[in-house]
Sequence to fold (301 residues):
Amino acid sequence: MSGRQVEVDGRRLSLSNLDKNLYPEFTKGEVIDYYARIAPVMLPHLKDRPATRIRWPEGVDGGKFFEKNAPSHTPDWVRTAEIPTPGSSSGRETADFVVVDDLPTLVWCANLAALELHVPQWKVGPPGGLRAPDLVVFDLDPGAPATIVEACEVAGLLRDVLAEDGFDSYPKTSGKKGLHLYVPIKEPNDAARTSEYAKAAAQRLASEHPDLVVAKMEKRLRKGRVFVDWSQNNPAKTTVAPYSLRAASSPSVSTPITWDELESCGDAADLVFSPDEVLGRVDKHGDLLEPLLDGRRRALP
Fold:
């Protein structure tokens, strides 16, 4: 069946082209099914965070586009938030971002072939204002021939640096070649302070392990090393959400992992997870990133 009408938590949705391959061997219907099944653990990480949707209407072998503004056909029950977007290529100073707070909105996004959902480290409202960051994130990006194996080594070193300041940190795969490391922090703070803290930690690692770590943006410096990207703490930037699919030749997922898994990683394939594997992991482990949600936070030093 290529299309159908469904009711999701009291909302009527028209799903289309369910048999269409968005990956070579993974259909749009399977994408929607994955997001519907992962929703219980994914939605808390999306709640109150304006989502940038990356859409592949013709699948991963076709073109993609980034969508920040809610399209004109957005149902009136989808929550949106008007967010400043200074310097936007659209010429607008604000955009009406979709906030994926519930299952119908998540399914609606998936039906629009929004394979990837990216969110910032801060939340909106109430009553619609922008809150200070509640997370610090590090993106560990290996430069070939380095792989996620080297990124795991750097994550361990970074965990120790953060622990010196009393912080626990929580890893997930990027769903591609790298890792993300999250630290829950206490408000009040500001984005400049979180960026400053993350940058200082990255620069310390680069100075202590210059053959393994780089903290500067220049790509020419990354060969065989791991770039500790602290810049995603800029409030205008986003990071792929936990449990989001990624666009690749086969569907992979940005997957929360344990420190034991990270420390025992001996091959890049060890930390590649399919949608079915991720659903199985959630059945076994629950949400490994639940500590990001529980409210126990420390202030930045």
